[in-house]
Amino acid sequence: MPPPTATLSVPSFFSISLPLSSFSSSNNPHVSSFCPAPPTLPKFPSLSKPKTPLRNLTPLSAVSIEKETLISERPHTFLREADGGDDGSVRSRFQRMILEAQESVCAALEAVDGAGKFKEDAWTRPGGGGGISRVLQDGAVFEKAGVNISVVYGVMPPEAYRAAKAAADDQKPGPVPFFAAGISSVLHPKNPFAPTLHFNYRYFETDAPKDTPGAPRQWWFGGGTDLTPAYIFEEDVKHFHSIQKKACDKFDPSFYPRFKKWCDDYFYIKHRGERRGLGGIFFDDLNDYDQEMLLSFATECANSVVPAYIPIIEKRKDTPFNESQKAWQQLRRGRYVEFNLVYDRGTTFGLKTGGRIESILVSLPLSARWEYDHKPEEGSEEWKLLDACINPKEWI
Fold first, then answer.
1. How high is the pLDDT of residue 311?
2. pLDDT score of 76
3. Under DSSP, is residue 16 helix (H, G, I), strand (E, B) or coil?
4. pLDDT band at 230 (very low <50, low <70, confident <90, very high)
5. Segment 321-359, tens digit of pLDDT
6. Type and span of the H or E element at 71
7. pLDDT recorded at residue 60
């Protein structure tokens, strides 16, 4: 969960592209959702294996959102005129924040890579909204790096609403109008000693369905930043978590421990009995605080990505490695793929709402590996990583 496109290309919230990730409203921030707490902390469904096979998770062409159209130049805004454009609303300020974050993160990644450059695709939708997908591929440092933003209007069919907001007692009878905006990124370095990073921050609103006039508009924030290394360097993991804690502590000292646990619980690969990586922070359905405070909090988290990650990459990108260490990295990437395609509600949401496939799946690496019954030698560096994924640690 957890990947983001959330996939927010039509929002796919958790991880991939623009994740607008999972929006569930129940009262347990620790069970499964890519992002954390709402009014009375949401209850998230347990991360159980889907009851229907993945082949059924195909886009419902649809009902929900019109197909995107590629454009040669990005517009000044993706907001509809009816929303007032850049009028100072939460929608407009969140859009400005994700555009600025995309610029700053891409500039930092190009600088550290030294050779690769981002390819950019901008797109719009007939009913309003659009997005910008940026991908750096086969660079000197990064095998694949995607940084996507999207601002999307649409109507969620019941299936997509259930994927986005998983509370069993909060199911709408018919299509639900929505607005979703977010930034999502997944960064896969070439060097096995340099960690993969995922982050995704989003804002989501639903409007009253036509058959329920007068129903209040709902809104919430979600997102998170998490680290997925193939090898553990404790100083790197402590640095990463300390930046997350610093961002959280500016707003509420309870945020870091709460969202750190949420992250550990969300990125759990149930069929493997292990986490995808070494965590970070994750929250969803967050609307039980002042809206202005949460907008500032999401902005602080997005602005913390570069200082949390770039120093680690600078330190590890040129570390010598052998074929065995590269193979281990690809095995861990296999776990990354498994989580995104089996458990990530953002990916499911993007597929069910007819999202832009290239943006939704941008989080997947160029290469991954699956070996039959692979078990690292106990006490080895590979075993230490796996142990930390099975038994989450407090790093700071």
1. 98
2. 87
3. coil
4. very high
5. 999 999 999 999 999 999 988 888 777 767 776 677 887
6. strand 69-71
7. 34
**Which of the 8 DSSP states describes residue 151?**
E
Q: What gap in Å lies between CA 70 and CA 72, rounded to an integer? A: 7
**Which of 177-186, 229-238, 259-268 comes out lowest in average pLDDT?**
177-186
What 8-state DSSP symbol labels residue 340? Answer: H
DSSP state of 372: T
Query: Reading across the β-sheet that carries 176-189, which strands appear in turn?
Result: 69-71, 119-124, 129-137, 142-156, 176-189, 196-206, 218-228, 280-286
pLDDT top residue among 33 and 182: 182
- What is the Cα–Cα distance from 80 to 83, expressed in whole angstroms? 5
Residues in contact with 210: Cβ distance below 8 Å, sequence separation at least 6, in sequence order: 174
Strand partners, 120: 134
Catalytic residue among 198, 241, 271, 374: 198
Closest CA to 225 of 11, 21, 12, 9: 21
198 in catalytic set: yes
How many Å apart are CA 244 and CA 247, to the nearest integer?
5
Question: For the chain, first and last CA: distance in Å?
Answer: 23
Half-sphere exposure of 121 (CA within 13 A, CB side): 17
Does this model's pTM top 0.90? My answer is no
pLDDT of residue 59: 35
Tokens of 53: 């096979």
Tokens matching residue 263: 């992250």
Q: At a CB cut-off of 8 Å and minimum separation 6, what does 173 contact?
A: 158, 209, 211, 212
Q: What's the alpha-carbon Rg for the chain, to the nearest Å? A: 19
DSSP character at residue 193: T
Q: Comparing C-alpha atoms, which of 228, 217, 163 is closest to residue 189?
A: 228
DSSP 43: B
Q: Which residue has the higher pLDDT, 118 or 58?
A: 118
H helices of the chain, in order, are: 90-113, 158-164, 234-249, 255-266, 291-303, 305-316, 323-342, 345-352, 357-360, 381-390
What tokens does 228 get?
């997925």
Written as six digits, the tokens of 381 are 């560096």
At 13 the pLDDT is 34
